[in-house]
Amino acid sequence: MRLRGERDLLSGTRGPGRPTRSALAVLAGATLWGTAGASQALLADTFPPATVGALRTAVGGLALGALAVVLRRPTTAPATAATSATAGTVPAAGRAALLLAGVALVGYQLGFFVGVAALGIAVGTLLAVGSAPFFAGVVAVATGTERPSRRWTVATGAAVVGLALLIRPDGGTTVDGPGVAAALLAGLSFGTFTVVSKRLLAGGRRHVDTVAVPFLLAAVAVLPLLAATPAVRDVTTWSDPTTVAVVAWLGLGATAAGYLLFIVGLRGVPAVVGATLVLMEPLTATLLGVGAFGERLPTTGAVGALLVAAALLATAVGAGTSPAGTTPTDPQPAR
After folding, report:
1. CB 166 within 8 A of CB 304
2. Which of 164-168, 179-183, 260-264 comes out lowest in average pLDDT?
3. What's the pLDDT tens digit per position in 45-72?
4. CB atoms within 10 A of CB 69
5. 183 contacts 115 by C-beta, under 8 angstroms
6. Can you give the pTM of this predicted structure?
7. Are 167 and 122 a contacting pair, CB within 8 Å?
8. Is the dihedral of CA 20, 21, 23, 27 positive or negative?
């Protein structure tokens, strides 16, 4: 039955599928993430940016946690190091990795919104999202997880150049040291989350647990911010159907579904490839701004969009054809 197949997809611990198909899943997840900017624009008169990020994390975390509970089912298979994670017994190393992933998610949300507030949307997004693939490469090499290929390096460089053209900062942009640090922290956090998630998957962790547990931890961390926001505590805020609908989409579609697709796809591609493919997020946001909000895309932006799209296509195809950039040795299950 279809339902059973969907349960297996999200909760299974099978080996990698077709790399190109996995790359498409990551691209689909990043496309959903790209709608978050439009959602934030619709909520701008109601919540400050940091609160929007906290709402996104809390709603998405609760949804993913509920899904993990629904998909949990008893198993009669013999317990092993790989299956213990799916049966509910979480080794100490696995708990530490999940905690690190949760901290990375919080770091990404806070760093991104602080960076954007200090530097502006264009520069903040460029530094936060554009630096993530390179930080993923650094973390992967430092931990001995993967060895990025030359093809990945060239494609990622081309994508970042295209991203710089796509979200070209205006001439009045000023450099803010703390803002730059915050944006780079966001890139480091997402790169770390990607590499850690890949290792959790390789160690036998269920797809849904790999993303649900860190998100639940992140949701708990942002609760004080939500409690301190007057608009969140105001009952009249939630009497507006548009606000409720946008927050629901932001948490369920742009976050929960997007991260699930990302994690499902990440099993079949190297972490560094997955981190590059998420550059689909700013491309989607830009195209959505042009198509739905009437924003203008200058010639340099159009060239940048085409360069990003070409680089992502090369990365996605390369995930299925190039042996370089894969994990040198399979990570051992968490113990």
Report:
1. yes
2. 164-168
3. 899 888 888 899 999 999 999 999 998 7
4. 10
5. yes
6. 0.81
7. yes
8. positive
